[in-house]
Amino acid sequence: MYGRKVKLRFFFVISILIVLILSVSLILKSLEENVVYFQSPSEIKNFAELKKKKIRIGGMVKKNSISADSNEISFIITDFKNEINVSYNGVLPNLFEEGKGVVAEGFLKDRNYFLASKILAKHDENYMPPEVKAALEEK
Amino acid sequence: MASLIGFYSLVLGVIISFIITFFSVKNFKEPIVFDKKIIHFSFLQFFLVLISFLGLIVSFVNSDFSNETVFNNSHTTKPLFYKITGTWGNHEGSLLLWLLVLTLFAVLFIIKSNKQPTRYRILTLLFQQLIILGFFIFVLKTSSPFNYIYPVPNEGLGLNPILQDPALAIHPPILYLGYVGSSIIFSSTLAAVVLNYISKEWASHIKDWVIISWIFLTLGILLGSIWAYYELGWGGFWFWDPVENVSLMPWLALTTLIHCILVLEKRLLLTSWVVILSISTFTLSMCGTFLVRSGILNSVHTFANDPERGLFILIFLFSLIFMSLFVFFFFYRENDKTDYSIFFLSKETSIIVNNWFMMYFLSVVLIGTTYPIFLEVISSEKISVGPPFYNKLIAPFLIPFLFFMAIGPKLKWVKSDLSDKIYLILFLIISLFLSIFIVQNFKIEFLLNTILITFAFYLFFITVRDFVSKKYKNLSQNLAHFGFSLFILSILFNNIFATEVITNLKVGDTFKTEKFNINFESLSQKNKQNYKSIVGKLIIENSKGSIEVMEPELRIYNQPNISTSEADIKTGFLNDKFMTINIVQNQEYFNVRYQIKPFMIWIWFSILLITSGGLISMLKKKYEN
Questions:
Q1: Is CATH 1.10.287.70 the classification given to domain A37-138?
Q2: ipTM score of the complex?
Q3: Which residues contact B320 (CB under 8 A, 6 or more apart)?
Q4: Are B94 and B218 within one domain?
Q5: I want to staple B591 with a disulfide (CB 3.0 to 4.6 A). Which of B47, B120, B402, B582 is the partner?
Q6: Nearest C-alpha of chain A: how many angstroms from B135?
Q7: Domain containing residue B461
């Protein structure tokens, strides 16, 4: 027979393993549910089918495209190849300007229309989201 | 001139680093007395880095644009205060600050450790010197703050306006005291492992260092959080932004460490845990520096995207981890004096259980922060992980966590029972009813919120009772746990009862809701030293007829040309009223956000309470001695 100490250690190690596996699988599962993918307007045009999940769209705010009324702000995000109309009601970051990079988070209504729930702020005038940079370099 | 002095004293510092290493190794072989030369050279090294740092400050104050760092981050029209704080508001300067604090802690360790064994002191300083040397090389090779530009520019590029803020001016030094404080914990733990010196005496000696770092880290995070609340205009206190997470991870490890050290001090248990936690705290602090500085994480704090810097820190980090793992596996011996008996109902058990929860929280944050980076490297797929992930994974597990926090301190060491504690059950029932009463009046997810609020109240009541009861023995623990219950309650109520209105208004417009009207009355403009200020006047009239005037501000800075929103916040005992405005380009409309955030001030206050728990435990020890 093994001693009490050995048995105890054995159970200890086993329980740690079980807890570890459980928590890691829990984390990974909710990670899958909660991640937000980043897309460019061109990628959206090429979608086989529209996803219902929340996504992020990045690109430039098209010149002379911003318009506002008391409820919402609409503008066009472009990657100079394709563009998408965005309507948004929420807080604008300070550096939201025409001709500057922007990342919008929300849901696609159709291939040309995006309902944003969040516009992301970047606090540097020369800053371009790396996603935008990559999307622009691809063209 | 100042830059030149700064540069050369930095170079001298490196030479001193080698000298200290030499004398330490020599002294370690013949440890009869602690070599005074090590002390002298450590002080000298600290003063050299201090001079170098002062040199950089002087360059900033004089707007010496022949210095590249000054040119990139300063401007003649900037107020003096921000010229000074701009010194550490950039990559190069903040690394010099890291180095300064590293050498400061080495000196402090020499002063404070004179009762410790000689070989242990020398070895700790040797490990510390290794870290210092690594940072010296890092600063000089990849990010020297003293690079020379020719021809000398007439004007600098200016400091990012959102960093021109009093809270953020002192946020980095305080945070660094916490981050870098963990370096001395790391060094002394490794030294103690090598010399097999891990004992109750060692635990009580290292406890002070752990608590000091913990206090500074907590305050540093608090300052950053308050800043984000009013300056970034996000209207919250925590956003699960990668950069915030990076400071939360060492905090979680450090908090766990504090509790483990207590067990070690009393029972000589969990020694390997303490070693692992000490190593991971410092490693996580380094990781934080790496992730923020390398430009991998994109945020306010990322100043430059320089892969060389990232690579250097990564190599440095891995060699430190490798070294500590080597030390751990080859030198670590179980202490044979340990009494292993642990019973299910005991203080140790509850601390261990909560340690596991803390490790779980830590891994959630770690995975959520690093997973997007790995995914991008592997599949070039770009993703982000937002607050729902963290809330979902952390909130449910806070319930048992709060319960053990309430019960644990009631239990005795080794073995305990709960027979005569009827009030513990009574409090639970009262909390449950109170919580149901609160939750049922609001349309929120019933089950999770009720249980969470119940256990937060439970911890609250039990800690309050302990203040009153004559039997309490541990004021610092009591205060910290009470603070935590208040913290969780404030967060929950802050989420549940918050009101928010976001709309676009022209001057003269009125926005109507059921509870209040917002009237955009007027707009005024003023020119300040380095920005143009636009202040809106908005009048909020609620249905009972009471009036509140809000004056949110927009600042348009001259160099760099950036606008920032300065929120107008009316802080109250029960809630904060919070308003920001922003321009919509080429439109007459302004983007207006108005929020009523309940118990905001209690969130800050409860963190201060938690911190003061740590402070009291240190002072008490001094007093008893």
A1: no
A2: 0.80
A3: B131, B134, B282, B283, B286
A4: no
A5: B582
A6: 28
A7: 419-496+614-624
